[in-house]
Design goal:
Largest sheet: 4 strands, antiparallel
Number of helices: 9
Structural class: alpha+beta
Number of strands: 8
Strand content: 15-25%
Oligomer: single chain
Shape: globular
Strand order of the largest sheet: 3-1-2-8
Length: about 250
């Protein structure tokens, strides 16, 4: 399994606990607000906004919440000024972490991120310390359902995907940023079930650790994701399927 994106996707697919649903809606609302602020409130002309709205609907975010977030972005409703920040750091044994943050308080965000990293044996790094280990890519996960995963992989390559990986229950599709929207729409037009559609940071290579160290890093990533201002974590940690299942059973 490549990095952390698939793990996060599987967790979202299984459904968030009611206690965390409000936090998820807050994070999605912030993404919508930023997208509307940067590119306008019309999803037909603002691709980033359309993508976030689609993801919000998949998470069952209420329509009213989506509309209010758009209005905050366009200035029709007052809201806190949000800032996008990408922090770089290290987990246990030097695993690389990119920490995407949307916040109205840079000081609060960096203090919280540093506290979680330090407590778990990680550290916050300088700008550029690990970003070079990742590529900015379009990232799509297709659930095969009744389709042949091999056929889906070939279809994606024919559409122009840069890389495809077949996992136990998913097909991962990697695209250039420029081709992402075209391939995403083409897969939708085939009637396929896309469980993740995002512009992501994909590790160029992954780091394998012992079982104990891998599980500890997964716990660290979970703790970071629980922070109010953190939107997403990207890691070069390799997480085998058996350890993913073990971690989920321990957390249940």
């Amino acid at each position: 399994m490549s990095g952390h994106s698939k793990w996060s996707t599987i967790k979202r697919k299984k459904g968030a606990a009611d206690a965390k649903r409000g936090a998820i809606f807050t994070k999605l609302g912030r993404e919508i607000t930023i997208a509307a602020r940067e590119g306008g409130g019309d999803p037909d002309t603002n691709f980033r906004l359309r993508l976030v709205i689609d993801n919000s609907r998949q998470a069952n975010m209420p329509k009213d919440n989506i509309e209010r977030a758009i209005k905050r972005g366009t200035g029709e409703l007052k809201g806190a000024a949000l800032e996008e920040i990408l922090y770089e750091g290290y987990g246990l044994k030097g695993t690389a972490l990119l920490i995407s943050v949307l916040t109205d308080s840079r000081n609060r965000a960096v203090a919280a991120v540093r506290r979680v990293l330090t407590r778990s044996g990680g550290s916050l790094g300088a700008t550029g310390c690990v970003a070079w280990l990742f590529d900015r890519k379009g990232y799509i996960i297709v659930e095969p359902e009744e389709n042949d995963p091999e056929e889906l992989a070939l279809l994606s390559i024919d559409m122009g995907a840069e890389d495809v990986r077949i996992e136990s229950n998913f097909v991962e599709v990697f695209t250039s940023v420029e081709d992402f929207q075209r391939i995403r729409e083409a897969l939708h037009n085939e009637g396929l079930k896309l469980v993740t559609e995002e512009i992501s940071w994909i590790p160029k290579s992954t780091t394998q650790l012992s079982e104990k160290e891998t599980l500890q890093n997964m716990g660290l990533i979970d703790d970071l994701e629980d922070l109010e201002d953190v939107q997403q974590i990207y890691s070069n940690l390799d997480i085998p399927d058996d350890l993913l299942a073990k971690y989920e059973s321990q957390a249940a």
